[in-house]
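Format is chain and fold; as here:
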Amino acid sequence: MGKTESTTMKEGKERYKSGVIPYKKMGYWEPDYKIKDTDVLAMFRMTPQEGVEADECAAAVAGESSTATWTVVWTDRLTACEMYRAKAYRVDPVPNTGPGTKTEQQYFAYIAYDIDLFEGNSIANLTASIIGNVFGMKAVKALRLEDMRIPVAYLKTFQGPATGVIVERERMDKFGRPLLGATTKPKLGLSGRNYGRVVYEALKGGLDFMKDDENINSQSFMHWRDRFLYCMDAVNKASAATGEVKGHYMNVTAGTVEEMIERAEFAKSLGSIIIMIDLVIGYSAIQTMAIWARKHDMILHLHRAGNSTYSRQKNHGMAFRVICKWMRMAGVDHIHAGTVVGKLEGDPMMIRGYYDTLLDTHTPMQLEKGIFFEQDWASLNKCMPVASGGIHAGQMHQLLHYLGDDVVLQFGGGTIGHPDGIQAGAIANRTALEVMIQARNEGRDIWNEGPKILQDAAKWCAPLKAGLDTWKDVTFNYASTDSPDFVVTPTASV
């Protein structure tokens, strides 16, 4: 947006006169700033209030997310204030916004923070600064945190995922393909015995695991202890019947961290290797459970319950890729990261960006995927993305094409809603996956040939045929609310 104005006052007598001066003049706007390797970088999508210049708005965001307040305070001079001030160093107009469009003018604001502003190994402290007060400032009409670059020096204070993809595959004895799972349905209302029966049928039919959903904890119709007992009984019987390693993700979410640890310890005592938590328990609780999981050699599955309350809107809130970064730092092994087909589908390129954030050892800047910063992951383990929400066997070629092998494919209704029963639903999913993997490994074009490959398999697999006949016309072709600003990529449904 141009050079620093001559009226900018970082230091000196005028800078510390009592009163109110613009954030830009206080030194929070610095277009010539030289980024340090140790800086934490954030990029916000800003919609300034009418009459507020973009660079002043960016400076206000930088100020209020670091050291500033609404008026000049002389106590700044008791600190290394030049170092501790965040610097807004770049503001760019967002493509396809402003005059001549249907969207009011938005800007991308880039802000640098000195690493010493943040406590190590604390997502709570990081977020208290970056998203603490700034979203309620009058200078901004709307604000969205789009992306962050976490420096290696700060990343190394976090443990990251305890197991990672490689160790999990070894533990589950599953290689060269996605993991197959399902969420028990209905998610609420089943007795412990019936719940366990669903788990057994699905695992015996060929799924690798079953899981609790986000809101099944310990209700009147089923105490958590009963659910754990019936589910592990189902896991053990299905493992014995199939000769395969099976699992069930026990949701240990509870009202207090102490209760969650009690439930996790009970799950471990029963022989479970996987527990589950919800995003809504909070960042500190997530880190606590991740530390517990690492100490006790357990896989930690995170359901992103609640994320859409702040990631859904394109102009205000926080992009999900930021949550992916924070959760990888916090140390979860799995996170629900969306799908490209189904009821929760998103833009393919944006979803791929989430997956890259979770799986790459080094993520390059890729604007078409919504990734604005290069990110070195400093040897933090990979976090397995989970695809779920309205997916079924007929979409297997699409899922493999877009999402690859390192993903958990969860077919909830697409297993339990099968017309011939739960076990048949699992058989359909497993068959669809294996024939598609075989075709891909043979060098066939599964994107174009996928429907035929599935139809050919359905000739000898009755459960797959019934599944394809039931869900062949089911699509959720709505426009994604979060699409790239630089490339438009509509989801193809076959």
